[in-house]
Structures are given as structure tokens and as C-alpha cells.
Design goal:
Blueprint: H1 2-14, H2 19-35, H3 46-55, H4 61-80, H5 107-114, H6 121-136, H7 140-144, E1 151-152, E2 157-161, E3 167-171, H8 174-191, H9 211-224, H10 233-246, H11 251-258, H12 263-266, H13 268-284
Antiparallel strand pairs: 1-2, 2-3
Length: 289
Amino acid sequence: MDFINEFVVDLVYVRNYSKNTVDSYRNDIEQFYELMNNKALDKITTEDIRGYIKHLSTVSEKSLARKLSTLRTFYDFMVKKSYLAVSPMDSIEGPKIGKYLPDVLTISEVDKLLDFEPDNHFSFRNRCILELLYSTGLRISELTSLKLENVSLEESLVKVMGKGSKERIVPLNDIATEYMSKYIKEVRPCMLKKEQTDYIFLNNHGKVLTRQAVFKMIKKRAEDIKLGKEISPHTLRHSFATHLLQNGADIRFIQELLGHSDVGTTEIYTHIANETLKRDYDEFNPRDN
């Protein structure tokens, strides 16, 4: 376990990975260690890893690829620290995963999702969250970790701490600013309990709202309006980026807003936009029967 702890320290202090990413790496390595019957991690062989892959034959290709990527990163670390001469992962190939385009909502579907009149503090909070997610493209972890000091209502800006502890500034549109202003000034104070907190979005106990609660809220909202799609907070992020691109926004601008370190990651939205255009063309072309 000392190797794992040292690896985690490297992830946190050398690579500046986020807490969620570090937790994911730790969980994968600890599960691998247990499946290897606690065999010393510096004694693991390529054959051990092939056996591990067979054990994971029922998991999805995406999950398997992630777990193998974790092992590759871990054993590269072991080699870098001279705990091993070579990595047992060197001759291991990961599964080939086909490229996929994430689901996005149409603008009319977004309007339907966001169009409801709040009738209590919690429904107002939910409307505020939906408006914020769609107007900024924030990741769910970025939204739940927002504090009062991160929002400037006067300038309609949000300061976000993204992956790798990279800070960025994201503008709010007028509707999101209006909802955020009323929520922070009028609604949120009514949701606070005895314990004070600077986190913006609160649950019914006056504590910071969890990621799981936001997922459930969005799922229920989609069911209530019979959207007919499985959606998540990330669906709104994808929709935000795609709609910006469709309306002529520069890909580099979208990259900055999303906090992508590599523009190649952002370029997937050009494929989504092209697929959407093709679908619309096929549907509405009067000469296409």
C-alpha cells in the first residue's frame, strides 16, 4: 500500500489532478491490488495483468480502458521512481473503443427543460442550477463546489476551478444572472440552517448539494416533461458547446469556456454540429423522399 500512497501524492502534488480524478485512480489501483490477492505491486507480471483483464471480461470496454489506463499510469510512475526496470503494462494493449458522439439536446428541448415556474425555494434553486449549467457549460463538480466568492453578479461572471486546479472565468447570460441574483440574495438565506456555509447550492439540511442530488433532479425533470432522453448535467454541457458552435462561436473561444487544455477535445463538437446539420437536412430537404 505504500506504493499506492506515494502514487497518490504524486497525482495530487506533482500532476495537480482534481480530487475526483485522484479518487478514481486510487479506487482502481486498490481494487486491482485486492484482486491480485494483495501480491506486492512491484512483483506483478504481465501474466498477472492478463489474468486481471480476463476477470474483467464482463465490464464495458470503456470501463476496462479506464482501468488499464490507470495501471499504465501507475506502472509508468513505478519505473520513473526506479522501483521497476520495466513496466508489466508495456506489452498490454487496451480495448479499441469506437469513437462516439455525446448526446445533445435541441434548443427547443432545452427550452422545454428550463421552462417552469418555481413554486418554492427548492424548485427555484433547481431552475437556477439548470440555467447556470446551460449558460456556462460547467462540469457538475465545478457547479457543486461554487462558493459565494466565485460569483460576481455585477459583472455577470463566475470564477471556476477546473481540472488540474486550472482557474477560468466564465460569463453568465442575462437569464442566469437574474436567477443567480435572486437565489443568492433572497432564496439561499432561507435555506441556511444553524451551520453557515459559503457553498452556493444547498440541500434541505442547509449543507452543500451533492453531485448525486443534481443528477437525480435533472433526471426527474426530464421524466416530468416526458423528454424521452436519458440526460445528465454533462448533457447540458455538451448542448451548451454545440449550440455555441452552431451559432458561429470560434472553437478556441469554446475551448476556453469549457476549460479544455487541448483544442482537440473541443473539436468533437464540430462533429456533433455537422451530424445535427445532416440530420436536419435529411429531415427537411423537400427533394429527399
